[in-house]
Amino acid sequence: MKRVFPFGSPLKKVEQQDRSPKKVFILGGCANAVHAKWIDAEGNVNVEALPVVCEPSIFWEGENAEQIVQSIQLPPKLGKLLPADKKDNWDYKMSMRFELLRPLGIQREEAWFCYLMPYPRLTQEKFQTIEDNYNPLAATYNLPESVLPIFNPSELSNPLRLGEILVELKQSQADTIVLLGDLPVEHFLSHFSKYKKLSDFEEGLDDFGKLINYGKKHKVEIDGKLYNVIPLLGLKHFGRSENPTFRQYHRYWIGKGVIYNSLKKITGRDPSLVAKMPKKCPICHEKEIATCVYENPPLSESLQEKIKNGEIVLKDTPMTKDDPAYMCRECGFEFYMSL
């Protein structure tokens, strides 16, 4: 059965078009649709937000919404379509620029975007809206019946799609992967690591440890290559996550990222690179800096006391040139030894 939106636009695959090498590979959950406000012939709002076409580009930010919506033709007796409110079509714009790319220190054109599910899917609410308001009119006005699937997480457990994502990841040539929300962790990263959800990255840490751990890079080998993996909230959850703790973590991560990249731009050097233990943190100005110790050493009384006081942070893997040598005890900013 052919899958189409209300008024006939076909369901299409939404994927990255610019295939040039990128710095970061960003993996989200499900592709989105452009939503329209349906005004009936009497000028009343029939539907506040009706999905009418696939988003024109991956991680679409709402540009040209009016032209896209108005290009869809309706029988005069059914009224007209206008762009839906910004919360339905523009939701990603502020989140994308200020709550994701800016803290990462990259421009949009430096990222390769990918969805676990590259086709739009409906919520139960949107499905019912179409069933109640559009499909009963389709036969009367010689319009195609809208046949769109409801989102089902089981669709994401697809070996063929996993293979497609790995191909895109390799093509991107990125060394860093950003995962947005629980779904990419569960249905992608779990195939290559112990992690199954966003909160798994926080297990075993105290409140302070959790605060500084959110948004950190985790080294994971995927398809024979070692990547820096950064797990974050999904774009739709920035600022309004059901988990207030993660919302707090994300705001804190934004602040650190913005300050770090601003300092890097202003000074012309990376503030995380040091030749010796820094006297204070450039992000929060805290003077208490901890030393990172790798491969757990024998826990003498002196070492245990330093760990308890926060002077030393233990790491459970061997140190490499890409691992931090020091860490701020207040905000968790990491320092690396310069060559």
Quick summary:
The protein has 339 residues and is of the alpha/beta class. The protein has helices spanning 65-70, 86-89, 91-104, 124-133, 135-138, 159-172, 182-187, 207-213, 244-267, 301-309, and strands spanning 24-30, 33-39, 45-54, 80-83, 111-117, 176-180, 218-222, 225-232, 273-274, 289-294, 312-315, 326-328, 334-337.
Per DSSP, the total helix count is 10
Order of helices and strands: EEEHEHHEHHHEHHEEHEEHEEE
Radius of gyration: 24 Å
| DSSP E strands, number | 13
pLDDT < 50 stretches: none
Helix content: 25-40%
- Please list the strands of the largest sheet in the order they lie side by side: 5-1-6-8-7
Strand content: 15-25%
Subunit arrangement of the protein: single chain
Distance between the termini: 61 Å
**How can the largest sheet be summarized?**
5 strands, mixed
- Structural class comes to alpha/beta
Q: What average pLDDT do the residues reach? A: 86
User: Rough shape?
Assistant: elongated
Write the layout of secondary structure elements.
Layout: E1 24-30, E2 33-39, E3 45-54, H1 65-70, E4 80-83, H2 86-89, H3 91-104, E5 111-117, H4 124-133, H5 135-138, H6 159-172, E6 176-180, H7 182-187, H8 207-213, E7 218-222, E8 225-232, H9 244-267, E9 273-274, E10 289-294, H10 301-309, E11 312-315, E12 326-328, E13 334-337
Parallel strand pairs: 1-5, 1-6, 6-8, 9-13, 10-11
Antiparallel strand pairs: 2-3, 2-4, 7-8, 10-12, 12-13
3D architecture notes:
- This protein is of the alpha/beta class.
- The chain has a domain at 272-339.
- The protein has helices spanning 65-70, 86-89, 91-104, 124-133, 135-138, 159-172, 182-187, 207-213, 244-267, 301-309; strands spanning 24-30, 33-39, 45-54, 80-83, 111-117, 176-180, 218-222, 225-232, 273-274, 289-294, 312-315, 326-328, 334-337.
- The chain has a 5-stranded mixed β-sheet. A 5-stranded mixed β-sheet has the order 9-13-12-10-11. A 3-stranded antiparallel β-sheet has the order 3-2-4.
- Helix 10 (301-309) links the parallel strand 10 and strand 11.
- It is elongated, with a radius of gyration of 24 Å.
- It starts with 23 loop residues before the first strand and ends with a strand.
- The mean pLDDT is 86.
